[in-house]
Design goal:
4-stranded mixed sheet, binds magnesium ion, 325 residues, binds adenosine-5'-diphosphate
């Protein structure tokens, strides 16, 4: 199979909506941005051995490549619409490509996003997805909008994905019969992140700041604080405890995974205290739990994140993931 047959077979057959004036097949896609909206764009590359373990399933790789981009769109409070795919593969393996395309199409259909173009080359396995979405005029969410006195919230149960990765990387860990269900749950949280697009849309009208958590809760909260020129107080006893993490890891390890583990793709956001009931409403209407984990401080607090346990400050040394650290 040559490059053009490959593209046509696996990536060329999508039916485009009316908003795609030109899709796969021409030199570039042409997309219709409706009046009253802005175009939101993001790109994320995932590399074998770095963002996913060697010999991962093609379906899991495809899922991750698109999901991490959907998560960026979610963090902006935007509606995902279109994506392009740059696929670098070591060889043409039809069963691999079939599984990859099926999983990609499955997730794309779930979020109503359309593949409108891409690039296919030979080389070490890595995948880039560039995603585009729409957001109402001047109403996107940012990392930089947090204000002193805001409450800090996180969706879901951070740490679960990192727990799942630990289980994948350490098959020698002894898992009892009773722990199997928790182990599978955590592994699935790592392999199939669920982008919080609906939550992001619901938060857009009232959240002051928002970002997605990909590199660890603590490190990402620091990034939000730096962007907003403020500090934050994190209350460790309020962190959402995952029953599955607790079933497999001891309390210290669970907390470390919660604070420093990556790959959650949950939303971290801040709201004025007067909007608490709106958060509760948003969380219940999209069935994603949101937990208040702390507060934004005045900017003179050194733009730092301080951790407290039952009102006593505790030192947490570990940072989030950094490719170049
Ligand atoms: P060009 O050489 O003009 O960049 P290509 O030969 O690379 O074009 O691609 C031909 C068409 O197929 C283009 O419309 C491109 O967007 C699309 N395409 C290539 N690879 C992919 C892919 N992996 N997924 C989706 N569309 C792709
Ligand atoms: Mg061309």
């Amino acid at each position: 199979m040559n490059e053009f047959e490959l593209i046509a077979r696996y990536f060329g057959s999508s039916h485009h909506g009316a908003d795609v004036l030109l899709g796969v097949g021409d030199d570039a896609a042409v997309l219709d941005v409706p009046a009253g909206y802005k175009l939101v764009a993001a790109v994320d590359t995932i590399v074998e051995g770095i963002h996913f373990p060697l010999n991962s399933n093609a379906g899991d790789i495809a899922w991750r490549a698109l999901a991490v981009n959907l998560s960026d769109i979610a963090a902006m409070g935007a509606i995902p619409k279109w994506f392009t795919l740059s696929l670098c593969i070591p060889q043409v393996d039809e069963s691999w490509l079939k599984e990859f395309a099926e999983s990609l199409n499955h997730l794309a259909a779930q979020f109503n996003v359309q593949l409108v173009g891409g690039d296919t080359v030979k080389g070490p396995l890595n995948i880039s997805v560039q995603i585009m979405g729409l957001v109402e005029q001047d109403q996107w969410l940012t990392r930089s909008g947090a204000k002193a006195g805001d409450l800090v919230y996180v969706s879901g149960a951070p740490g679960e994905a990192a727990g799942g990765l630990q289980l994948l990387l350490h098959p020698e860990l002894q898992i009892s019969q009773g722990e199997q269900v928790h182990s599978s749950y955590l592994i699935n949280r790592f392999l199939k992140p669920q982008p919080r697009v609906e939550l992001g849309r619901l938060l857009r009208p009232f959240a002051n700041a928002c970002m997605d958590v990909s590199d660890g809760l603590l490190g990402d909260l620091r990034k939000l604080c730096a962007a907003s020129e403020c500090g934050a107080m994190l209350r460790l006893e309020q962190l959402p405890r995952s029953a599955s993490l607790a079933a497999i890891f001891d309390e210290d390890r669970s907390e470390q995974l919660m604070l420093c583990g990556g790959d959650d793709y949950e939303l971290l956001f801040t709201v004025a205290p007067s909007n608490i009931s709106q958060v509760t409403q948003a969380a219940s209407s999209c069935a994603v739990p949101c937990t208040c984990i702390g507060m934004i401080n005045q900017s003179n607090e050194l733009r730092d994140v301080k951790c407290f346990r039952n009102n006593h400050e505790v030192h947490v040394s570990v940072n989030g993931f950094d490719h170049f650290a």
